[in-house]
Amino acid sequence: MKNLLIIAMVLLTINVTAQNNNGNLIVASYNIRWNSSEDGINIWENRKDWLTKSIKFFELDIVGAQEVTHTQLKDMESLLPGFEVVGEGREGGEKGEYSPIFYRKDRFELLDSSTFWLSETPDKTASKGWDAALPRIVTWARFRDKKAGETFYFFNTHFDHRGKAARKNSAELIGKRMQAIAGEEQVILTGDFNTAPDSEPYNVLLDNKLEDTFSNLPEEQIYSPGYTFNSWDVEASGDRYRIDYVFYKGKKLQPEKYHVLDGQRGRWFISDHFPVIAKFIWKKSLDCN
């Protein structure tokens, strides 16, 4: 009996140590707000240093960003020298807003990446789908985490703000494409989905075996004002709910913390969306049975 107890304690110690040694994975969904000249004190020039400093200060490993123009992309590359980026504009090449993926170049090896469009013709550049007001894209990448020794896929998107059918169909298309591209590998999906947690597109994503980090954590592991879109409103008036998300799929990734960074300093905002930060831990294979 004593020997069995000793063996159990040793196995538990090995398991916990191995899990901790795999390291944390900290990711974010970050709608940075395009560089509109009509944003007053919150123009991009007044926010870009604050925004990129937050990425470094919170030690983010991967960021799925939205509304990124080519000029902003170049600014972020310059201000984030430890990061590489993948993605293209929704009009093709350097044209239109990007949904890029920024990742730490010292930690991750990029194995593959591409972009597809949220439309009836997803491989056609700049194609607009269903009742969408604008072309919308998904940028994805496959990484090897050199610290954890694991491979995974990271998808990042921005759903249309007007098209109700477009949002539902976009969720269905992402589910199908994700399965075709990633198969049974670990997946993280970030984005501005322009949809509430009680909406049909949200439920379509859950039906495709994606899990919402917020919903899978106890209250003590969540820090959030309860909404992600602030619309530059210092009084936080009107309807407030989550429209930016970090989803995940797979048994090796376990969420540990969820944080909506309410970046506001009086009338100054980090963006018109608050970034969503999720901390994951890698679980060893023997934990995943």
User: For this structure, what is the CATH homologous superfamily?
Assistant: Endonuclease/exonuclease/phosphatase
- Return the string of H and E elements: HEHEHEEEEEHEHEEEEEEE
Compute the average pLDDT: 92
| Record field, number of beta strands | 15
Category from helices, strands and their pairing: alpha+beta
Helix content, binned percent: 10-25%
Which value, in Å, is the CA radius of gyration? 19 Å
Structural domains: how many: 1
Distance between the termini: 26 Å
Sheet of most strands: 7 strands, mixed
- Determine and state the CATH class: Alpha Beta
Structural shape: globular
Which ranges are low-confidence, i.e. pLDDT below 50, for 5 or more consecutive residues? Answer: 1-21
- How much strand content do the residues show? 25-35%
The CATH topology? Deoxyribonuclease I, Chain A
InterPro entries: CCR4/nocturin_mRNA_transcr, Endo/exonu/phosph_ase_sf, Endo/exonuclease/phosphatase
Keywords: Endonuclease, Hydrolase, Nuclease, Signal
Protein name: Endonuclease/exonuclease/phosphatase family protein
Signal peptide: 1-18
